[in-house]
Write a structure and sequence with these properties.
259 residues; alpha+beta; 17% helix; 38% strand; globular
């Protein structure tokens, strides 16, 4: 029975892909499926990103959006040349180009107007995964394999299905020979809990890069610009006298990616 379900899943996926163009080449903005997760992060940023999230995907690209943040979570702070949005009306969009192995994501702005969104470039599939072919788990009708890997300061355990050979997943996770349906960090602070998967050529959301100012900076360059600017502000405030400010390491429970 399970073999029949796997064959049926693969057949449906192939039909959906090929029916859109006739040759299997999907229009880059057209989603053929979505995975719905419940994102739960016990972090300082958690209240702004926790809740229902969606991964819209096709063979060439995917878009992860976090819709759990209420509009009331939109808080904009300005520190001279640095503006930060702790909420995002654009759903914290993370766009992944599977073929180019690149990511573009909406984040805080450096040296931009108050309340603006900036888009930063990152790398897809930077994680070195170890696949455990002996570990199997079913999510709905999808049989999954377990993989473990380290990404930006956290160790992750994920479950992916080879039945849908798309190298993407929740947040910035990806790089496996199948779609990641569930994942969690081994420290227990970050979870992407599977809700359901739908295959359909009629999904309303298009797969497009996030709006905002494109900085031209990589993830590491943007991270350095942020840290350098915080240090600059601290130095200027210290020079004015009063209580002295020391800029230390970012706590591990601040964001999903450990700085």
């Amino acid at each position: 029975m399970q073999g029949h379900l796997n064959y049926l899943t693969a057949s449906i996926f192939f039909i959906v892909c090929t029916s859109l163009t006739g040759f299997g080449q999907i229009e880059n903005s057209k989603a053929i499926g979505q995975v719905i997760y419940h994102q739960q992060a016990d972090l300082l940023e958690g209240k702004n990103t926790n809740g229902i999230s969606y991964l819209f995907f096709n063979t060439s690209a995917s878009l992860y959006v976090q819709t759990g943040a209420p509009e009331s979570a939109l808080i904009t702070q300005n520190l001279e040349d640095f503006s930060y949005n702790s909420g995002d009306k654009l759903d914290f969009s993370i766009y992944k180009d599977h073929r180019a192995r690149k990511i573009w994501f909406s984040t805080f702005c450096y040296k931009r107007e108050l309340g603006s969104h900036c888009v930063v470039e990152d790398t897809l599939g930077a994680t070195e995964w170890l696949i455990d072919h002996s570990a199997h788990k079913r999510f709905g009708t999808y049989q999954c394999l377990k993989a473990t890997g380290h990404f930006r300061g956290r160790d992750y355990e994920v479950w992916f299905t080879p039945d849908i050979p798309i190298s993407s997943g929740p947040f910035k996770l990806g790089g496996l020979p199948g779609l990641i349906l569930e994942g969690r960090s081994t420290d227990g602070l970050v979870q992407f809990i599977f809700q359901r998967l739908e295959l359909s050529p009629d999904l309303p959301r298009k797969i497009q890069k996030p709006e905002g100012f494109y900085t031209g900076l990589s993830y590491e360059e943007n991270k350095k610009a942020f840290v350098d600017n915080v240090k600059k502000i601290a130095e200027e405030l210290n020079a004015e006298g009063g209580a002295q400010i020391t800029v230390g390491e970012m706590p591990a429970n601040a964001w999903i990616e450990v700085w």
